[in-house]
Design brief:
Elements lengths: L2 H13 L2 H8 L3 H15 L4 E4 L2 E4 L1 H25 L8 E6 L5 H14 L4 E6 L5 H6 L5 E5 L11 E15 L12 H5 L3 E5 L5 E2 L9 E4 L2 H9 L4 E5 H6 L7 E3 L6 E10 L11 H16 L3
Parallel strand pairs: 3-4, 3-5, 7-9, 7-10
Antiparallel strand pairs: 1-2, 5-12, 6-10, 6-11, 6-12, 7-8
Helix pairs in contact: 1-2, 1-3, 1-4, 2-3, 5-10
């Protein structure tokens, strides 16, 4: 029984179709179909029943799914222990992050790290977007993920890479008077409070200085979103908070203003390169898991 066939089986079961599983894994659909057929032949049973364009687990497939997931987790554990034999120093890594990506996203990352690297001593630290690069440079963090306000080349002491671009959207609560206007001009915005992001230097980010008269400055994006939803003002909210926590953002509305969208790069920072080595370091392994979760969340 081949481990990769079990992996394909579990992925198809979780995604509900061979096409969706193939897209996630970067494989051809025919490769997955042949692997599932080979596994069914080896086990002498049907693992899926076709329902239109989707697949549903058969009774036997449902019965063995948990065991297959356990086998895959055990295989990952065995591989890790062989790559990190007893007697070697235990590894401790620190991850930094801002809150452009949600708490639930980072919980999933932590869970996967604990599964793939069970002996790793992991620390995760929340900090402001502007603080994280310097914390990596100082050695307080091994890797960090943050949106950059004014990205610049960091020099040889810090590796940085743009992963994607984050859209900041100008929002107000649905019951706010601004949300009732078909189109907003600058004077409309000036008559109400702007909720801004307060960085570690006490600077207000995303403030429309030529428009905003009154501001409410908060130190996290989730606080900004919640304050806007509570009707305390208008302001820019990172799109990942809107799409990844749709229920918490359901009462927000995009304002129809010429400056309602701005793009900022989302970066990863590390002291060591994040290339693909034959024997990846724990930092590289963690980064791979983060990238996979970002792709799964639809933000890459």
């Amino acid at each position: 029984m081949r481990i990769e066939h079990l992996y394909y089986f579990v992925t198809v079961a979780e995604r509900g179709s061979i096409a969706a599983a193939a897209a996630e894994l970067g494989r051809n659909r025919s490769t997955l179909s042949m692997a599932i057929s080979a596994l069914e032949d080896e086990l002498n049973c049907r693992l899926f029943e076709r329902r239109g364009n989707s697949l549903q687990l058969s009774d036997t497939g449902t019965l063995i799914l948990d065991d297959c997931q356990r086998l895959l987790a055990l295989q990952e554990k065995i591989s890790y222990r062989c790559a990190n034999p007893p007697g070697e120093d235990s590894i401790e890594l620190s991850i930094g992050r801002d809150d452009v990506l949600t708490e639930s996203f980072w919980r999933r990352v932590i869970t996967r790290v604990r599964t793939h690297l069970p002996d790793l001593k992991l620390r995760m630290r929340f900090a402001g977007s502007d603080e994280l690069p310097e914390l990596v440079r100082q050695g307080q963090l091994d890797i960090a993920y943050a949106m950059a306000f004014n990205p610049a080349y960091a020099g040889d002491s810090l590796c940085q890479r743009i992963l994607t671009k984050t859209r900041m959207q100008l929002m107000a609560a649905r019951q706010h008077r601004l949300a009732r206007l078909g189109y907003l001009n600058d004077s409309d915005l000036a008559g109400s409070t702007q909720v801004t992001y307060l960085d570690s230097d006490q600077q207000e980010r995303f403030r429309l200085h030529n428009i905003s008269r009154d501001t409410l400055a908060l130190s996290s994006y989730e606080l900004i979103r919640d304050a806007i939803q509570d009707g305390l003002g208008w302001g820019y909210v990172p799109e990942p908070l809107l799409i990844m926590e749709e229920a918490d953002s359901s009462e927000l509305q995009l304002l129809n203003h010429g400056l309602n969208t701005a793009w900022y790069p989302y970066l990863v920072y590390s002291r060591d390169p994040l290339g693909h080595d034959r024997r990846p370091t724990p930092v590289q392994q963690i980064h791979k898991l983060v990238i996979e979760e970002m792709a799964q969340a639809g933000i890459l």
